[in-house]
């Protein structure tokens, strides 16, 4: 009889432990840092931008992108991009929530 109670108590403990240890998936989906060649770009609510001096070539830059813990970014960090036009980045949180950012480099004109 004691073994039966012990087995039931053990089963309840195992089930309870499993229910308590389930990790809640994060909904954080932000670009926290965006860097190209050691220079940080300005990260806004849904934008990433940088102004470069006249004559800078921005059509083949490979950014290093830090996103919220557990999130993923597409296109991937390190993938070369043409920033003379808008590049759309999508950050996906662990729970599937997404946020888009528009990234663009502006090359100064004039003297």
Tell me the number of strands. Answer: 8
If you compute it from the alpha carbons, what radius of gyration comes out, rounded to the nearest whole angstrom? 23 Å
Biggest sheet architecture: 5 strands, mixed
**Domain module count:** 1
Percent range for helical residues?
A: 10-25%
CATH topology: Immunoglobulin-like
- By secondary-structure content and strand pairing, the structural class works out as alpha+beta
Strand order, largest beta sheet: 3-4-8-7-6
CATH level-two architecture: Sandwich
What is the distance, rounded to the nearest whole angstrom, between the alpha carbons of the first and last residues? 92 Å
Instruction: Give the low-confidence spans.
Output: none
Written as H for each helix and E for each strand, in order along the chain, the element string is HEEEEEEEE
Whole-number average pLDDT? 88
Question: Can you describe what's shown?
Answer:
The structure is a single chain. The mean pLDDT is about 90. The protein has about 110 residues and is α+β, with helices and mostly antiparallel strands. The chain has a five-stranded mixed sheet with strand order 3-4-8-7-6, with no helix packed on it. The chain has a three-stranded antiparallel sheet with strand order 2-1-5, with no helix packed on it. The radius of gyration is 23 Å and the shape is rod-shaped. The protein has one helix and eight strands, in the order H-E-E-E-E-E-E-E-E. Helices cover about 15% and strands about 35% of the residues.
């Amino acid at each position: 009889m004691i073994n039966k109670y012990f087995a039931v108590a053990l089963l309840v403990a195992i089930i309870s432990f499993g229910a308590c240890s389930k990790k809640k998936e994060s909904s954080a989906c932000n670009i926290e840092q965006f860097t190209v060649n050691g220079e940080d770009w300005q990260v806004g609510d849904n934008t990433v931008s940088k102004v470069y001096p006249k004559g800078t070539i921005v059509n083949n830059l490979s950014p290093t992108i830090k996103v919220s813990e557990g999130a993923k970014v597409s296109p991937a960090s390190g993938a070369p991009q043409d920033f003379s036009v808008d590049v759309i980045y999508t950050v996906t949180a662990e729970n599937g929530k997404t946020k888009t950012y528009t990234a663009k480099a502006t090359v100064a004109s004039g003297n």
